[in-house]
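Suppose you are handed only these lines of text.
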Amino acid sequence: MYRDVLILYCRAPNAAPTETGMSRLALSDSDKQARDWFVKTTKALGCTVTIDNIGNIFAVRPGRREGPATFAGSHLDTQPSGGRYDGILGILAGIEMLSVLQEHQVETEFPVGVVNWTNEEGARFPISMMSSGVWAEEIALDRAHNTREVGGGTATVKSELERIGYLGSTPASYRSVPLAAHFELHIEQGPILESEKQKVGVVKGVQAYKWFTVNIDGRDAHTGTTPLQSRADAMLLAARLITHTHRLATAHNALASTGILTLSPGSTNTIPGHVSFTLDIRAPADATVEAMEADLKRDFAALAAGKDIGGLLANSTPGKPLSVEWRTDFVSPATIFHPDCIGVVRASAEAVTGDSSLVRDMSSGAGHDSVYASRRCPTSMIFVPSKNGVSHNPEEYTSPEDCALGAEVLLQSVLRYDRM
Ligand code: HGY
Ligand code: MN
Ligand code: MN
Ligand code: MN
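From them, the structure of the protein bound to manganese (II) ion can be written out as follows.
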């Protein structure tokens, strides 16, 4: 039963796109389809379903006693061209947990549940881990509701929640829907488990990260008539700043990328007068992210003023000084999970694998809803290997066996915690 369900949903990368597809942007029609399936399936498994006013869906199966439920949680939304495992694996394994409990008529001490957190990816609406953040009362509901989709569309989180029928009435808060504990099964999305030939990651925490938007204002001008020294070329400066970001990431032993870059006016023979690009900066320690941010701001201002940094401007004609403006879009401090939950995951993983050498403690390079869940309840995560360490890519792949093993560890973790 376990393997069948997970194999069904964890299709090989070359399989034809299915209804669970590779692109299920938050609050899109395909997200609605998956949500509707989630609600129908969990209700059929005897759960009560609560939808809050940021679209989080909480399915709860009653236990012998009343009280907050121990949850399996993750997210249904994906990147624009994401894989078939990021997020949905944790949801499917949670639902599989409920069906196994139902099938074997297991009565848990307290309620257990599965939660789908709205817009974990922040791909369409650019706030990462948005709705677990609202539930934890760390992201304001209004800010989340009014967030517009990237690319200048008119849709907002609130208008899309209304359109797909998931603007619930329950206030999104840990006070209205308390969780006893939160366990998240997730693909590792990196190369460690596979390269170390291990099967389960016991996740102890998540690294720090910050998102920025950098705006550069120069001047539109004719490519063919404007001498190099009198240009205010926003795109040339952006290219230098992004190159420099990579150099500072190397120097700080951090990670960084630019995932969105827009320029105007967007014509082959006009020097771009405006460029906007994003920065995603990550490192295990908050202090490293802060130090890198300070160096970037200092060096971006210097490069914009035409001062050379590390030979970046060597052998080139200086143009006009430009202005660079920063906006901080998102901040996630380094997170440590709860020792009780870490212990439960480790004990479950060792019991399920029967071999502690296949189990390793690790921290997460990616953000997850467990970051905000851990602000308000004991939390930990379970990682399973990613083929070639690839994720946020249609080639994302985890074998059905590894998915099923992770689902078993999730079930055992929730049951162990329920009995604690
Ligand atoms: O950005 C992240 O790490 C997560 O996928 N939202
Ligand atoms: Mn994810
Ligand atoms: Mn992701
Ligand atoms: Mn994530």
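What can we learn from it? The radius of gyration is 23 Å. Confidence is low (pLDDT under 50) at residues 1-21.
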